[in-house]
Amino acid sequence: MQIEFKATKRVEQGTGASRRLRRAGRIPGIIYGADTGAQAIAVDHNELYHLLKKETFHASVLSIDLEGTKQTVVLRDTQWHPFQQQVLHLDFQRIDAGQKLHLKVPLHFVNAEVCPAVKLGGCMISHTITELNVECLPANLPEFVEVDLKDLEAGASVHVSQLKLPEGVAIVQHGEGDPVVATALTVKGAAAEETAEGEGEAA
């Protein structure tokens, strides 16, 4: 289901105008891209604050109802107050259904509790990467990419190249190599216990 919210056009701009908007419970923002001029907007703070708490809001195609006109966008940037739970500004980019987009999507780790590393080796799973840069058409944008850890052995790692991506989705990788996504780390206490057991059996 596509996430939709309402916005109004913002005429007054500048620091003073933005401050007045925030006092009135609104967030200044901007919509840009798709070979169309940038449009200054304002949205309800409470509504967007709660939407921003949802993981899917950051990796989904969104619909903005701008005074009766629907615009399809993705969230590009969020500015927060340094110490208050207040959103200061939002940037949205228009998208074209026929053009690929780049976006970060979260990784969901599953089956960690049943993998050999945890169940038999007493390991702890370290998540080295929690999100992934992908490229795809808007219709193919996944809410998340699943990382199945069911076969992970003690001391082993899962790399980006091992991830199963949805159809039409490609990884956008910066730099060389094959980054580690998750690693099974041996817990010191468990390792010491295994050593003691081994010594006991040998005796």
Give an account of the 3D structure.
The chain is α+β, with helices and mostly antiparallel strands. Helices cover 18% and strands 42% of the residues. The protein has helices at 15-23, 45-52, 116-119, 188-202, and strands spanning 3-9, 26-33, 36-44, 62-66, 69-80, 87-94, 101-110, 123-127, 131-136, 145-148, 157-159, 170-171, 180-186. The strands form three sheets. The protein has a six-stranded mixed beta barrel with strand order 1-3-2-6-5-4. Strand 5 and strand 6 form a beta hairpin. The radius of gyration is 23 Å and the shape is elongated. The termini are far apart.
CA(first)-CA(last) distance: 63 Å
Q: Radius of gyration from the CA trace?
A: 23 Å
Low-confidence stretches: 194-203
- Main sheet characteristics: 6 strands, mixed, barrel
Give the helices and strands as they follow along the chain.
Answer: EHEEHEEEEHEEEEEEH
Compute the number of strand runs.
13
Task: Put the structure in a nutshell.
The protein is of the alpha+beta class.
Primary descriptors:
18% helix; 203 residues; disordered C terminus; single chain; six-stranded mixed beta barrel; four-stranded mixed beta sheet; alpha+beta
What is the element layout, followed by pairings?
Elements: E1 3-9, H1 15-23, E2 26-33, E3 36-44, H2 45-52, E4 62-66, E5 69-80, E6 87-94, E7 101-110, H3 116-119, E8 123-127, E9 131-136, E10 145-148, E11 157-159, E12 170-171, E13 180-186, H4 188-202
Parallel strand pairs: 1-4, 2-6, 7-10
Antiparallel strand pairs: 1-3, 2-3, 4-5, 5-6, 7-9, 8-13, 9-12, 11-13
